[in-house]
Write a structure and sequence with these properties.
two-stranded parallel sheet; alpha/beta; 10 helices; 7-stranded mixed beta sheet; globular
Length: 329
């Protein structure tokens, strides 16, 4: 519309794969390859500046629009993971782990995505590595809606608590292939290790543990790419209410898992970016001090058992691969 602003920020622009990570401008060669006119692309701005003001709403008229961040980058910003070596994992329908690499662009050799973390005004950009897991919370929905094993999502924790361990059962939820770090479109879901001993409690527990195992594999890739082992993992999203999952996550990672007081970190991160731009917040230090810890889970699993579980998980993953071929859709 007349007088409007057509803009995006570096984090969203990076997700199109059309932006040069070094120059933070649209890459003309890539645009040409896809037949996209540069004139139709929005201006690329920082994540925190005043882009314009609202004109179409009487309620918000003249209110500045001052913060733009991609979904996962906003959650990372809301977790106050501002410095290199800090990370968060969001547990929703899928899982998204973002690791801040600071002002350095780290090109992954282990199946992760290199992306923008944030850019504040004229300051240098912060980059990140991202690992995407396709199926985590949606696996619990599958148990409820497709199998009828539970009637509500919280029941999975109660069911899982009825058994001492997974009974040798592993679920690889490759419903639409495997995402990071494998990127195997030919994979499909698998439940392995079944015996007559296995019951629905073991299946429920294996479903929860699948989320933690997948996160461990992504974090292993992050550690390999960055060369800086993560010392703790900040978590958010709907599944962080599941105590059993969070404890097993700490156990299989071997590092503490920390839940903040405010778990709606995506909205919080966008608000932080906007508040910095208009002076409501002074600096990142003030935002860091505003972050509060709600609960921390310390790892309790012996190292040898942790590695045994990972070995069996990786064996299970191999059983899900090479399933789709020419006559299997």
């Amino acid at each position: 519309m007349d007088g409007g602003v057509h803009a995006t920020d570096v984090t969203n622009a990076s997700r199109t794969m059309f932006m040069d990570l070094d120059t933070l401008q649209w890459d003309q060669d890539i645009l040409d390859a896809f037949g996209v006119p540069a004139s139709m692309m929005p201006a690329i701005k920082s994540s925190s500046e005043v882009y314009g003001t609202v004109h179409t709403s009487q309620l918000l008229r003249e209110v500045p629009v001052a913060g733009i961040l991609g979904d996962q980058q906003a959650a990372t910003f809301g977790q106050a993971a501002f410095q290199a070596g800090e990370a968060k994992n969001t547990y929703g329908t899928g899982c998204f782990l973002i690791f801040n690499t600071g002002e350095e662009i780290v090109h992954s050799k282990n199946g992760l995505l290199t992306t923008l973390g944030y850019k504040l005004g004229d300051a240098k950009p912060h980059y990140a590595l991202e690992g995407s897991i396709a199926v985590t919370g949606s696996l619990i929905q599958w148990l409820r809606d497709n199998l009828g094993l539970i009637s509500s999502a919280p029941e999975v924790e109660t069911l899982a608590a009825g058994v001492e361990d997974n009974g040798g059962v592993y679920i690889v939820p490759a419903f639409s292939g495997l995402f990071a770090p494998y990127w195997r479109a030919d994979a499909r879901g698998a439940i392995v290790g079944l015996t007559r001993f296995a019951n629905k409690g073991h299946i429920a527990r294996a479903a929860l543990e699948a989320t933690a195992f997948q996160t461990r594999e992504v974090l292993d890739a992050v550690n390999a790419d960055s060369g800086v082992p993560l010392t703790e993992l900040k978590v958010d999203g709907g599944m962080v209410a599941n105590e059993a999952l969070m404890q097993f996550q700490a156990d299989i990672l071997g590092v503490p898992v920390v839940r903040p007081k405010v778990v709606e970190t995506t909205a919080l991160g966008a608000a932080y970016a906007a508040g910095l731009a208009v002076g409501f917040w002074k600096d990142l230090g003030e935002l860091s001090s505003n972050w509060g810890e709600d609960k921390r889970w310390e790892p309790q699993l012996p190292a040898e058992e942790q590695e045994r579980q990972m070995r069996l998980w990786k064996k299970a993953v191999t059983k899900s691969m090479d399933w789709v071929d020419e006559d299997v859709k």
